[in-house]
Amino acid sequence: MAKKIFIGFVALVLVAFVLLFQFGGRAAEELTKKLLAEQTALQGTLKAEEIQANWSGDVIFKNVVWVGPDGKTIAEIPLATVSVNLFDALLKGGTGASVGDVVIDKPSFFVSYNKKDGLNIVNYINFQVEEEQKNNELLTVKKAAAATQFRGLMEIKDAKVNLLLENKPLDFDKVQFQGNFKQYPKIKYGLRVKDGKSDIIADIQNDSGTTAVVAEVKKMPLQNILNVLPQAADVVITEGNLPDVKIRADKADDKWTLNIDGTIDGLKGSLINYPVTKGSGKFSADTEALKFAGLNLELAGQTVVIDGNVYYAEKPEAKQTYALTVNAPSFVIEALSPGLGLKDAVTALGKVKGTIDKPEAEGTFGLDKLAYDPLYITALSGKFLYKDGKLNIGDAIGNVYAGQVNVNGQIDTKTKDFKLEVQGIDLDSSVVTETQVDGPLSFKMLAIGTADAGSATGAGSFRIEEGKYMMLPFRSIKGSITRQQGKFAFSNIKIATAVGSFDTNIIVKDNGKLGFDLDKGFLAAQLGEK
């Protein structure tokens, strides 16, 4: 973001060179026209609809248009006033030193930038450079015939800058600019951009190949810069503010250093298809990465904290990469999909990686207890992986009734549909049945549902291995299970014994425990009755 804002600053600063070479030293109208026609400092053409000169030394230019060599308009200047030292101009024939102050009213600039060609307005200016100076990464520099001798002040009032940044528009309105050339080669620039309640104030100083930029941004809406930021998959920002941002950029030996510190608040939008209703935190940036520290989001009504870096792309066509940590200290499970109907909360910790167009997140989660009547699961922990809009749950293991429960599955973050496989292994059936049945219980069930509350349904089977019913032995009890509206139901139950197989029923008691209603034939057979 800082690079984009700084490019806008550079575009405004370059106006100084435009006027410097064009209007630098003809007190007479005809000489000024000749200078415009024969100038070589700017590529393309520069024409003024009207030029007025008077003996006070002021030259007024009306409706000046600069057209680049590609035929596109670079600048439109309705009115420019240049003060000229007439005596110096007449004696010396008019040079940049003859120009005093320059004031430009309500100009419009149309500039573009891309990584390959840099800033077009810079490429169209023939700068004066020393022989040993090397081109930097932003400028295509051509040696001019003579260096500027302008030693005055330049002021631009209420300018509009239309910047096309990598084919994305970034517009600045009511831009105020001041440039001081009196201590050349030390040049000082001041810039202020005010748009509604937001404010950008910058001081720029250039001296013998070094540049220092100090800027402050106040109350800027994020919408002002969103359209020039890289498109990030699964991230949508609809609102947000930058209350206070401080920028420091320095150039020495053709290298830039950058430091940005700021805050963000009022953030709204969505993240991985879940609504973000509130967000705030701190961020910083340098020439390598954008960094977040304690970015607090209210995601689907739950608190999520993000820290870490987003690294800039180093090569052309490359993508920015994530290196973030995500912490959810108490995330209610049903916030992922209301159909889950699970009001217990997990603690989750993960890492976001991949590129901004293909993000991935993986990590672990855990919780102390989970009520899944009639099961009460404790110490449940597992892993998660987010990729391509799907949240995958795997290797989730918990304790239940002296046994173990495993959970695996997937939640579609777009539709909120889910599919989970729940498996219980070696549960103590005597706890489930209040000692009516004793034996290791296992079950397997597939639970599915949608975003609608109460939509979860499940189906599967269970089996109790060799055990006892009311102290009477059996080889196994097995049957089918279903789950609807948060309740289990059982059917097709068979109990196998040494003397045969018998039907039975299971009912869920008010306290959530299971009760067996065994066939009388089973009891008779076990007791040896005829």
From TrEMBL:
GO biological process terms held by the UniProt record: regulation of protein targeting to membrane
Task: Tell me the domain of life.
Answer: Bacteria
Q: Name one GO cellular component term.
A: plasma membrane
Q: What is this protein called?
A: DUF3971 domain-containing protein
Origin species: Phascolarctobacterium faecium
